[in-house]
Amino acid sequence: MEFGFTFSNTLAAILTIGIISFLWRDNPLYKLCEALFVGVSAGYWFVSLYYQNLLPQLFDKLGLTLIITPHADVKEGALQVLFKQGRFDERILYIFAGILGIMMLMRLFPNLGWVSRWPLAFIVGTTSGLYFTTYFQSNAMAQLKSTIIPLNSINNIVIVVGTVCGLIYFYFSKEHKGVLGGAAKVGTWFLMVTFGASFGYTVMSRMSLLIGRIDFIFSTWLGLVK
Amino acid sequence: MNDLIWVAIKFMFEKLLRIDRRIIFLFVLIALIVPLFLNISQHIAISPEVRDIYDSLRKLQPGSRVLLAFDYDPPSAPELQPMAVAVMKYCFKHNLKVIIMGLWPQGPLQANLAIESIKRDKEFKDNPPIYDKDYVNLGYMTGNELVIQGMGTDIQRTFPRDYLGNPTSSLSVMKGITNFSNIDFIFNLSAGYPGTVEWVLFAVDRFHAKLSAGNTAVQAPQVYPYVHSGQLSGLAGGLKGAAELEKLLGFYGKGTKFMLSQSFAHIVVIFFIIVGNVAYFATRGKKKK
Questions:
Q1: What does the DSSP assignment read for B149-208?
Q2: In chain A, count of helices (H) and strands (E)?
Q3: Which residue among B25, B36, B225 places its CB closest to the CB of A143?
Q4: pLDDT digits over B91-108, tens only?
Q5: Burial letters for B264-286: b for 16+ Cβ neighbours within 10 Å, e otherwise?
Q6: Which of A52, A143, A202 sits opposite B218 (nearest CB)?
Q7: Considering CB atoms only, which of B149, B206, B261 is closest to A211?
Q8: From chain A, which residues contact B within 8 Å (Cβ)?
Q9: Which of A225, B15, B237, B250 could make an S-S bridge to A219, C-beta 3.0–4.6 Å?
């Protein structure tokens, strides 16, 4: 990273000030910075997805790169193996991934939009299959196991009471009255504390981002802070 | 007389309740900027979660393989970059072999920035980290959690080439590494999805890898239950976690430097919350009468 009044640092500083200026009021500099951000992000992600996803994961594996432009890294793709040597290469299965990808783009055409439901169904199906056991094991069983603890310290009591009362709050098969109502009330308090802690962490996080930009302006750009 | 005092207080409180939000922004901005110019050290208390990371690192023998997963991008750098620099410095100083990778496209670039800053550091100027001797960068791999799943079976197949285009099998740091069973410790720096949750779900619970994490403050509350259940061996959350990690590892950097600004800003925010609530309840009570 360069320090001082270089072109890139000055541009970054102006853009930072432009974005922060929204706190004062909406203004043309903010609009310009916002439009630049959206445009650059879209361009960056398009190039990134092409070079880091489509090219190495699909075109290179199938050998399409070899057909379009000779590529130094690719010696032979699945298509070359199939057509030149007559052998089946498992990489040819990537062609189905490519077809599913094209089917997804059919959403752009109103008459053919229904075609995109097939790859979506594939994604939903595989993701559920992948996550079903993993989530159950990691987020249900492991967490349940860590709640079965001896009540020999304040921490442990808080964990057990908080978990039980929190669960009772979400138990809607019986009216929240009497002991159940009291426990649900305690559950509400635990939930409020959780949300408060989350909000506190969020404030801390946002402050950190602002500190990062301020440090960039005063240290990297202006060189006032060592 | 009492009524006169009450009218004055009420007038002041009503003024406070109508305060322009930009004045509050200005106070917060001043609270963030001024400490950057002050040379005051702040006491940083160490939490058990961060100490767990330190303990895990300390147990590693020289030559151990440490996988650093950079799952964040520049917006989260103020919180996570100090952690990355501190952990990397510790690894290089104690001769631990570092393997860098990322499930976010800009993650491995952040790793390169961290290494550049370490090379500029006085402590490492005579003995800078060398590529393929002290560390390798496998780069970014698309596929989110499926990449972790693939690494559990075969890391070199999942990452056939490193960041520079060298075959992974030709790298000396990667010799003898097949899957997570050959990795001694994983440290995940995460700012969202895919990140620590996915590493816990797939690397820890499925392949029994040893994992610690550094998270943005926003994400930390979601990840804390994994520490208590033992699925995660330590967690550093936000800038505070970064400062704690720097203190424990003995490398003071931006995490410690920024903490003073953070604390000042928090004091300002807390002050306005208290004043706002007092003003609200005081004026509301009077209206009811």
A1: HHHHH-HHHHSSB-TTS-BGGG-STTTT--SGGG-SEEEEEESSSSSHHHIIIIIITTT-
A2: 10, 0
A3: B225
A4: 999 999 999 999 999 999
A5: bbbebbeebeeeeeebeebbeee
A6: A202
A7: B261
A8: 1, 23-24, 48, 52-53, 57, 73, 130-131, 134-135, 137-139, 142-143, 145-146, 159, 194, 197-198, 201-205, 207-212, 214-215, 218-219, 224-225
A9: A225
Q: How many angstroms separate the CA atoms of B120 and B113, rounded?
A: 11
Q: Which amino acid is residue B125, in one-letter code?
A: K
User: How many angstroms from the chain centroid is the CA of residue A78?
Assistant: 32
Q: Decide if B266 and A207 are in contact by the 8 Å CB cutoff.
A: yes
Residue given tokens 């097939």 in the structure block: A118
CB B268 within 8 A of CB B27: yes
Q: Which residues of chain B from 259 to 278 reach within 8 Å of chain A, CB to CB?
A: 261-262, 265-266, 269
Q: Which amino acid is at A142?
A: A
Higher pLDDT, A115 or A77: A115
pLDDT classification of A74: cutoffs 50, 70, 90: low
Distance (Å) from the alpha carbon of B90 to chain A's nearest alpha carbon: 22
Instruction: Measure the CA–CA gap between B61 and B112, rounded to whole angstroms.
Output: 25
Of the residues A133, A195, A201, the best mutation for testing chain B's interface (the one with the most B CB atoms within 10 Å of its CB) is A201
**Strand-pair partners of B65:** B97
Q: What are B215's strand-pairing partners? A: B190, B237
How far does CA A61 lie from the centroid of its chain? 26
pLDDT reading at A88 higher than 90: no
In 3D, which of B276, B265, B266 has the Cα closest to residue B16?
Answer: B276
Interface probe for B, chosen from A25, A204, A222 (most Cβ of B below 10 Å), is A204
Q: Hey, what are A219's tokens?
A: 């240290």
Residues in B 197-236 with any Cβ partner in A closer than 8 A: 200-202, 204-206, 216-218, 220-221, 225, 228-231
Give the list of residues 6+ apart from residue A98 with CB closer than 8 angstroms, or none.
Answer: A58, A62
- State pLDDT tens for residues A107-152: 999 999 999 999 999 999 999 998 998 999 999 999 999 999 999 9
**How confident is the model at residue A72, as a pLDDT?**
54
**In CATH, which of 2.60.40, 3.40.50, 3.40.1130, 3.30.1490 is domain B48-252?**
3.40.50
Residue-level pLDDT at B141? 92
pLDDT on residue A69: 63
**In chain B, where are the structural domains located?**
2-39+261-288, 48-252
Q: Given a cut of 70, is residue B289 above it in pLDDT?
A: no
With CA atoms as reference, the chain A residue closest to B140 would be A52
